[in-house]
Amino acid sequence: MAFPQMLPPTASILISSLLLQLAAASAPCAFPAVFNFGDSNSDTGGLSSAFGQAPPPNGETFFRKPAGRYCDGRLIIDFIANSLGLPRLNAYLDSVGTNFSHGANFATAGSTIRPQNTTLSQSGFSPFSLDVQTWQFSQFKSRSQSFLDQGLFKDQLPKKEYFSRALYTFDIGQNDLTAGYFSDMTTEEVKASIPDILDKFSIAVKSIYGEGGRFFWVHNTGPFGCLAYVLDRLLLRAPEVDRFGCGSPFNEVAQLFNTKLEEAVAQLREDLPLAVFTLVDVYSVKYELISHATKHGFELPLVACCGHGGKYNYNGHNGCGSKKMTANGTEVVIGKSCKDPSKRVVWDGVHYTEAANRWVFDRIAEGKFSVPPTPLRMACKERAV
Ligand SMILES: *[C@@H]1O[C@H](CO)[C@@H](O)[C@H](O)[C@H]1NC(C)=O
Ligand SMILES: *[C@@H]1O[C@H](CO)[C@@H](O)[C@H](O)[C@H]1NC(C)=O
Ligand SMILES: *[C@@H]1O[C@H](CO)[C@@H](O)[C@H](O)[C@H]1NC(C)=O
To answer: Which of 112, 192, 269, 311 has most Cβ atoms within 10 angstroms of its Cβ?
Structure first.
């Protein structure tokens, strides 16, 4: 029997609908927008809008001027937007010249999942915790839709249908853990706070699902025990380091958080049947870069590129871009950038360089570090294809 000419008509209809389904399953998602929630790892100008600009030399590599990012250039979220064919996200809090046609960014540097009981000036943690970011998102959605109903701001706001088709990205949690340490909690106490932190994370995700969000791309937390601000401030209290010089207790806490995050996301998959979650293991990628920096073309992985003095070129009182008044009344910058940021992993002792962000993005984009292993452009599909 010849194929396919001899097939009865119903069979060929079945086959062509199957082929259509296969084509749909392998077609990229074409996300029309990205809405991001998080901390400084993905802040594209939120904290700067509210509390003053991240000073130069932030932005020097790519933007050639400060651009609201705590980085010499672009962040992972910038590479995400770019690879989806979308413009870089504007900060929701930015009141001048913003364009939200293809998404908005609710992240601010210093944000935590749980609201902190301290002010920014007391502790350095942002008042825009994840619950606040979801309230802002809800305002953004309802106000933008009501303006569109009046025929206003069409070229600055996302179309109504974008909210259910958008990718919702999250990179937050690290500050909840360091906030515990900075308020003198022991490692055991910080570990004990993780279930409550993740309960609040799940509440935030459910509220976005309640607003129609369906596609979630979640970064786990990085190895903050390798970052200068933690090493400099906390190593005296928990002095164990691994063979790469990273503070082991802090990285163990990060890994415990990530294990529990995986459980929380598994539960969310059950509770929110129409949602699609991709959980991305940025911890492993960042740790690989730090622990084998030379192999990957980088150097001095624990030392800040931009800073002022000390073992890690990090000084909590004189950060990247900080200035000092000289005797004759002129200001000089003392928190200076290193010669070649493209060879460095850590920018200012807290955040990664553009070169490191790009390296991490290149490794996570195809899904090799994700559960399930879905590429970014396919993150609307139930299963990897
Ligand atoms: C802030 O205080 C409230 C009330 O005492 C408490 O329930 C909450 O856990 C505290 N938040 C943090 C992050 O410590
Ligand atoms: C906002 O960006 C979109 C897409 O890049 C563009 O089509 C639109 O004209 C922009 N709006 C304004 C007001 O510049
Ligand atoms: C002020 O002092 C700094 C060095 O401390 C020097 O570089 C600068 O030229 C001086 N400026 C003036 C106006 O004298």
So the answer is: 112
